[in-house]
Amino acid sequence: MTTFPLRGRDSELAVLRRAHTAVRGGGGMCLLVEGAPGVGKTRLLQEAVRVGRAEGFEVVRVQADELDQYAAQSSLLAALRETGEADRDGPEQAVAEEPFWVLDRIAEILERRVRRAPVSVVVDDVQWADPTTLAALRALPKRLAGSRILWLFGMQSASGRSLARRARDHWEENGATRLVLRPLGTEAITQIAADLLGRTPESGLAPLLRDVHGNPFLVVELLGALERSGGQAPLAGGPPVPADFRRTVHRLLGELPEDAMRLLQVGSVLGRRFDLTTAARMLDRRVGTLLPAVGAVLSAELLAEDGDRLAFRHELVRRAVYEELPRPMRSALHREAGELLGTAGAPSAEVIRHVVLGGGPLDQEAMRTLLRAVGDIAETVPEAAADLALEAAERLPPSDPRRIELLTEASYQLTGTRRIHEALHLVNTTLSDDLAAAQQAALHLVAAEIHQATGDDTTAMAHTRLALALPDLREDLRTQLLKTQGTGLVSMGELVSAEAIGGMLIEGARRSRDTAVVVSAMVFQSQIAFYRGRLSDAVELAEQARQRSDAEPHTIRLRPPRVPALWLATVLTATDRLDEAERTLREGRRQAEAVGLGWSLPHWYVHRAFVLLERGALDDAAVEAEACLAVADELEITRAVPLARAVLADVAVRRGDLSQARTHLRTAEATAGIANPPHGPWLALAKAALLDAENHSREAADLTRGFGTGPAWLPSVPPGHWPRLVRIALRGGGREAAEAILAVLRRIAAESGGHVVTRAVHAHVQGLVEGSSRLLRAAVRDYRLGPRVLALAAAHEDLGHALIGEGAVDEAVQELREAQGLLRRCGATRDHDRVRRRLADLGVRAAPGPHRPAATSGWDSLSESELRVAPLVAEGLTNRAIAERLYLSVHTVNTHLRHIFTKLGINTRVELTRLLVEREAAGPPEA
């Protein structure tokens, strides 16, 4: 096939060449090529492929198809495999069963390729890409920004698919270069015509070339039509070539045999690529009898061979044929195609497209197929699943009960995403007294989960009460409502009310065949024990729940805090078993990735941040919280974001960066999803710490009151923070709040089963309230038996203050110096400076505070964890390989790398490797 020069796109080609040069130099880049159909996007991307290969790039090409938008599989991962890169983690089937590994696996394969050569990833018609590929393309340019990868996406400007539009907005927000292809000028169109004709176009062609309005594809079609009619331009006064392309194609169809025309019409319904067997069945013909028709459409260059299928030579041709069909005929053909493909066991993506476009009534088989597809897509991209359910719901009459089922499913899928307001609006507009009781109850259940996700337990409980008051509910639905109500009541600290419904919930769970319901009931029992202070019972029940869920990991779909391993880690963090809590989180995260619980991933990171903060590892806690935000952003899931922001705010307060702490808290409150969100325990703790640091002592003390009003709030944050809350309360004149916290702690200590940390915290808090150096000494002694460095430092500091009051200044100085050393080790700048000032008041010259250079200040600014990661990059290890070497997650490694790049003032792995080589050659720095 002759390849002609690309005409009229010199400036765009220059951008492409500069992009390849920049990426070869070591940085990633993203280019978005937009334009109307036929304007030349595909041709420009073909030229980009040629340029890339000429410059030594490994090229990965994906041609998205209209059917892909309903597919659960990743076409990008398939393209990587087709070009020779085996997936080391398992066969194709493993990916189908473990969808949330896909993004990490694509990243891993690309990282391995980049070690050999720069890579360009070229995706044409990205607006139709499958949800998993679109999610990967949205996330990976940012994640792999330091790798030599050029991302090139071709997209129709007027794409109506919301998922694609949001991806485009995300790329632009993150610095993608946008190339909008405008219609070509007269000179370029004339050059294209000359290339095709092999001569300068005759003057009679000029009016016809103007009629294509700068669209190069229409030039090709125009000249092809003229060639088929004898190669002459129409004579003056002859019939003009219509400007409307659909009519042009319609004329071409009229010149074909009737069988060929019918084949094209049916094919246009089946899609740009279609199976000849299915087309034959729809035409009620045997395949062999279609040989003349196939020959005719291939000769006319309307269709082409594409593997084992036929394909329209351009989407414009298919659309022109398709849109000439009367709308009722199109709908009927889609319904027939859906039935045929469903009976033949075709992939759900193909079936669903026809179910949706067919309109009209949905039979039970079509509905089952639709809900199955929604479930498959929800495993990877809940938003896409919601959009499919909404699209299908619009095809059903308002009174159809299946419409309510689809709207309920759409609301549920949107619950954990950035579109939580849309989910709530959808529930509120769908709820009606005219609905059946079961439909109302299901919508109330979704509404309750939405409000729980935003921290509004009061409204959530109102929805569960309304639902449970409805008559004749199915037992499984009633049990699910009780499960949600029980979780909310525990969260609100209403343990008596929670225990009152506990019997019904447990009895319903015993009769349930749903493992998720059974496990939720077990977690509920553990929560009751935990908030009653029975820590040993809580641990035992949580371990039983985890064992039950581990036995059937692929069947469990629970939301935090009901995920057993997450809850177990929460309980263990309140005990002497912090190491087990970390191990539980590490193993739980890996299993969550393996079985497709992707929406839970941010929670695993933020819970590990809780544990690390409890240990006093501020740098690593911040890294895990940032990893939580990165994963939440990639997956467009918001539930854990306020918690991660609260951790980052608390770390910022400890380091003395109060401006950054304020920013994190503002973002946390905005992300909570509702106006004026109630402060959960973590947000209240972080905000109280910030207000205290800003000398707004009374306002800070007011925020501590919630921790003493019931049994639920105080255990919701790890015990190392409890003395700090009391200290803030006392400093702001909130003795009543401090004594209330002590009263809650006494109940916990009486029931806890002898955990050392409970004993230490109890002594610490009581010592603060009573001003007792004896109790504070006991707290120091017990803290030394465990890993809670910040709590130990606080106990030393508080003991020092108590000893000063007793006149034992020399002993007080020793305690304050102990606190200072521990705080320096943790990097708690503000706390360290406070102790140093106190020592200065006593006339003691203190050691300088922890050195925290500016972000670009060189190697001395890197944390211990970052210093472990950097050399492994120089060894050529991928992020996953580094993660496996250091027992971290890929996202944690990626966060460390971002910090390293920022602190060293670089942007790529290549630059980091060069700096490491230079540093090693220079030898150790002189003392």
State the gist of this model.
64% of the residues lie in helices and 4% in strands. Mean pLDDT is 85; it is low at 89-99, 232-244, 673-678 and 851-856.
Describe the SSE topology.
Blueprint: H1 10-24, E1 29-35, H2 41-54, E2 58-63, H3 75-82, H4 92-97, H5 102-114, E3 119-124, H6 131-143, E4 149-156, H7 162-173, E5 177-180, H8 186-197, H9 206-210, H10 216-228, H11 245-254, H12 258-270, E6 273-274, H13 276-282, H14 291-299, E7 303-306, E8 309-312, H15 315-324, H16 327-343, H17 348-358, H18 364-378, H19 382-393, H20 401-414, H21 420-430, H22 437-453, H23 457-468, H24 475-491, H25 495-511, H26 515-531, H27 535-551, H28 564-573, H29 578-595, H30 601-615, H31 618-635, H32 641-655, H33 658-671, H34 681-693, H35 697-703, H36 722-731, H37 735-751, H38 756-770, H39 773-783, H40 789-805, H41 809-826, H42 829-841, H43 864-874, H44 879-886, H45 890-904, H46 909-922
Parallel strand pairs: 1-4, 1-5, 2-3, 3-4
Antiparallel strand pairs: 6-8, 7-8
Helix pairs in contact: 1-2, 5-6, 6-7, 8-10, 11-15, 12-13, 12-14, 12-15, 16-17, 17-18, 18-19, 19-20, 20-21, 20-22, 21-22, 22-23, 22-24, 23-24, 24-25, 24-26, 25-26, 26-27, 27-28, 28-29, 28-30, 29-30, 30-31, 30-32, 31-32, 31-45, 32-33, 32-34, 33-34, 34-35, 35-36, 36-37, 36-38, 37-38, 38-39, 39-40, ...
